[in-house]
Amino acid sequence: MAIVTVNEDVCKGCGLCVDACPKKIMALDTTRINKKGYHTAHCVEMAECIGCAFCATMCPDVAITVEK
């Protein structure tokens, strides 16, 4: 199982990671806002993550880390 970590202080909620995820388990958290005023990304089903790191690769702010 892979672990996806999003640095919420850096994430600007662009959604590129959501579009890049082949398993469609990345989403923007509309219930929370970071200190910059953005809805940040998060992994909604960590157990389904295959560790491809497409989300991390697409992130323009390098806010996502994927560990296996």
What does the model show?
- The chain is α+β, with helices and mostly antiparallel strands and 68 residues long.
- It has one domain (3-67): Alpha-Beta Plaits.
- The chain is built from 2 helices and 4 strands; from the N terminus they run βαββαβ.
- The strands form 2 sheets. Strands 1-4 form a two-stranded antiparallel ribbon. Strands 2-3 form a two-stranded antiparallel sheet.
- The protein starts with a strand and ends with a strand.
What order do the helices and strands come in, and which of them pair?
Elements: E1 3-6, H1 16-20, E2 26-28, E3 41-43, H2 54-58, E4 64-67
Antiparallel strand pairs: 1-4, 2-3
Strand order of the largest sheet: 1-4
| Architecture (CATH level 2) name | 2-Layer Sandwich
The CATH class is identified as Alpha Beta
Rg from Cα: 11 Å
CATH topology: Alpha-Beta Plaits
Q: Would you identify the regions where 5 or more consecutive residues have pLDDT less than 50?
A: none
Annotation field: number of helices: 2
**How many structural domains in the coordinates?**
1
Mean pLDDT: 97
Based on secondary structure, the structural category is alpha+beta
Sheet of most strands? 2 strands, antiparallel
Form type: globular
Classify the beta-strand content into a percent band.
15-25%
In whole angstroms, the N-to-C terminal distance is 6 Å
Element-by-element helix/strand order: EHEEHE
Helix content: 10-25%
State the gist of this model:
With 68 residues, the protein is α+β, with helices and mostly antiparallel strands.
Write a concise keyword list for the protein shown above:
68 residues, 15% helix, alpha+beta, two-stranded antiparallel sheet
